[in-house]
Amino acid sequence: MAYQKSGSLIIRPISAKLDRDVEALTTMDPYVFIKIGNQEMKSRVCADGGKQPNWEDQLNFVISGEDQAYIGVWDKRTLMSDSEVGSSIFPLIKLFDTKYHEDWIDLFYNGQKAGSLRLYMEFRPTIPAGQSQGEGVFQGQGLSTGQGFTGGQGTGKLGEKEIYTGELKGQNLGTQQGQYNYPSGTSQNYPPSGY
C-alpha cells in the first residue's frame, strides 16, 4: 500500500552498541547520519565514544511522501574520509499509524551485523485545513488554529511565549476567530506589546 503522508518527523539518536570498529589505533568518534529524500542531517560527534556512543541531538525533517530513511553511524576522521560503521533502511510507514517509535535498530555493513542504534522518532502529520485534530490549544488572542474544538480550556501562545490561559468558545470551521475570556484584570489589548 502506498502512503502519501506529509508532516514533520523528529528523530533523536540516543545511543549505540557497535560491534564493528573502524579505528585500528584510536577510539572511534561516532555520529549519526540520516537521509530522507533529499534531506540530510548529522548528529554531533560523540568524541571518543568508541563502540558505545550516545547523543542528545534532535534532527527535524519535513516528510512529503517519502517512505523510508537511511540511518547510519559513521566515524569522524581528521586526515581521511569519514567511515561508515553500519547502517539500516528504516520504513517510515511504521510511524504513520503509531506516531511514536523508540527502539533499537540493527545496523549492517556489507551484509554483516555491525551493531544497534537506539532512536526515538515522532511523526506529526500535516492536518489539512478544516479537519479536526481534537486538541484545545489556540494561539493569539482567541484565534483557534483549526484544531477543531468547540469549547474547553487552552493555553494561548504568541511565538514560543506562553502569555495567557483561558477558555475558548467557537466553531469547527478550520482556522477561525473565537471568543476568548481574558484573565481578570486584563483587557482585550492583552498581551502587552513587545511579545
Automatic annotation (TrEMBL):
Region (Disordered): 131-156, 174-195
Database matches in InterPro entries: C2_dom (IPR000008), C2_domain_sf (IPR035892), Ingression_C2_domain (IPR052981)
Sequence ranges of Gly residues compositional bias: 137-156
Entry superkingdom: Eukaryota
Cited Gene3D superfamilies: C2 domain
Boundaries of every C2 domain copy: 1-105
Name used for this protein in its record: C2 domain-containing protein
Lineage: Eukaryota, Sar, Alveolata, Ciliophora, Postciliodesmatophora
